[in-house]
Each structure stands twice: as C-alpha cells, then as structure tokens.
Amino acid sequence: MRKRWFSLMAAVLLVVGVLVPASPAVAAPTFKVPFPCGQSWSGQTRSGHSPAYAIDFNRTDDAGDPVVASAPGTVDRVTDLGGTSYGKYVRISHAGGYHTYYAHLSGFNVSVGQSVGYGKVIGWVGSTGGSTGPHLHYEQRLNGSDIQVRFNGALALYWGTKSYSSDNGCSSGAGSGTVDTSGTPLTVRSGPGTGYSSVGTVADGTRVTIQCQTSGTSVTGTYGTSSIWDRIGSGRFISDAYVYTGYDGYIPNVPRC
Ligand SMILES: [Zn+2]
Q1: What DSSP designation does 144 have?
Q2: Distance from C-alpha of 250 to C-alpha of 240, rounded to nearest angstrom
Q3: How far does the centroid of ligand 1 lie from the alpha carbon of residue 159, in Å?
Q4: Exposure string (b/e) for 31-55, b if CB count within 10 Å is 16 or more?
Q5: pLDDT in tens, 38-80
Q6: Distance in Å, CA 146 to ligand 1 centroid
Q7: How far is the CA of 249 from the centre of ligand 1 (A)?
Q8: pTM for this one?
C-alpha cells in the first residue's frame, strides 16, 4: 500500500454516499512486452489486422528469437494449426478472465497445464501458419474478446508502429516492503487471511521480502483497506494493509501466489 490518506479518502467517499466495494474485482494482470528484459521490438497495429487489436512484432534477424510469457499464468493451449491462421501458437490463461496469444512460432518451449511467470521462454519467433515472414503475432483477450493491448498498464499505439522496450523478467520476481503498524507487532498467518492460524509476528519497521501476493481476507490497516496478502516465507503471510511497498495494489513483477 502507498498512501496513508487512502483510508481518509475512502471515509470521505463513504460520507458523500459513494459505494466503496469491500473487495475489488480481480485487477488486470500487469502485462509486459513478450520478449526478454532489455530488448526493443517494433510493434505494429493496423485496423485491417485480424483480430483488430493484435500487435505484430519484428526486429532485425528475429527468426528464432525467444518469446516470453507476458504475465504469470497457466498455459492452456499449445497448438499447431499447420499452414493456416496462427500456425504454431501458445495461449496463456491469466487471472481475471484474461488470455494472451503468441502466434506463428517456430517451436514450443512449454506444454499445456504448465505454470509460467514473467520472463519464461514459451517458444521462438517463426513464420508458421498464414504468415509471409518471421514475426510474433500477439493478442490480449478478456473473456474471449480481443482487447486493446496494454504493457505495464499503458495503452499500445493504435494505429501505427512503435518501438517497445521490454522490462519483462528484469527483476528476480521478489518484491520488498516495510511493515508499519505504528507500534504493535504484526501477526503472521499460515495462509492469506485472518482465519488462518498465527505462526508468529514481525516487528513494526521490519523490512520484508515479498515472494508473491494473493487475495484473501480484507483487512483495514495503516495503509487503508486491502484484501492483498503478502507471502514472506513458506506458509507465512501478512496483510498488505500494514506494508509499505510503494504501490496501492499488487506490486508489478511480483507473481501471484
Ligand atoms: Zn498478426
């Protein structure tokens, strides 16, 4: 959580009659450019594309370059359509009804049911299916519908060609935060909720490494109300409502538990 005034703001909103949901809907995953950290790729959108919001990515001598998962998720399709359409493609299922598609691959590096995180190589750029030259055809979908692509929350260029640089997998995937309870030790739970058993405490002011984050019991703490729980060890969870992470919601780059 980030701002102390968040809870004050929420209280003000309640006073003026705005409904503040106790537990927000699942947020969109933080999608990243589907290439390894530090690479720059030219991404083209065009209204005649099918589907319309897909991006075709290219760079010099790109045939055989690795393609990586855009966000954590589960691979749910590894399919070869032969000489038509997507050719060899991978689909990844993400939280909240989102899917990403990676098409015209030359080969696969994952199988159906596999969990993937940021930076995981899923296949290689190719020109399979209805493609006339090596490129990556990339899509984001929500509940099956083609949506405009976002990387780190920022909308891609529609329409045109733009250079996108990747920060996918740049960090180790662990986040950090500082416990702030204004004094009392914070209870550590065996799972992401107040109903789980206490397995210890962390002192106010402790710097913690956050291995992953997940949704659990809604808690009101120093940084407002949050249903996010931070895993700080094996079987050790603390409420994000008491942790300063620099972010109001999930920390980009940190995986979901
Ligand atoms: Zn395409």
Answers
A1: T
A2: 9
A3: 14
A4: bbbbbbbebebbbbbeeebeeebbb
A5: 899 999 999 999 999 999 999 999 999 999 999 999 999 999 9
A6: 13
A7: 33
A8: 0.62
